[in-house]
# Entry
Amino acid sequence: MSKLFFKLHVTLLSLLVLTAGTALAGTRAIAISEPSNGATVQNPVKVCLVTHNVTVEPAKKGVNDGKGHHHILVDADLPKDLSQPIGKDAQHIHMGDGSTCKEIRLEPGMHVIRGLFAQGNHVPYNPPITATVIVNVQ
# Structure
């Protein structure tokens, strides 16, 4: 039953991502290029993000329109208040050095990985520039 549930989630999320990606053509967006949605992966899990119409730069460069850095949210919803900086803990991983890939360790099982693009002060853009994949860690 759990495999069927996982496959259903992956299929629905893929459809949502495809629909949203088409609707966002020409706007600011990010995508998770690795791992792919629905992938079965092993630790460490390499998460890579790509950008469209925004530029990645280290957080120390400050707040510059259309520029910022990635955050990885693991099994966490988007922040409710997008005017506040993103927290920093095991579920909220900052990539303030301007990197686009990060290796993370996850417990075995299904996980939701979200990329969230934010300004140099770690405050997300509003509306959020985000992408999501679901993976199964062995």
Notes: The longest strand covers residues 124-137. Residues 10-22 have pLDDT under 50 and may be disordered. The chain has one domain: 2-137.
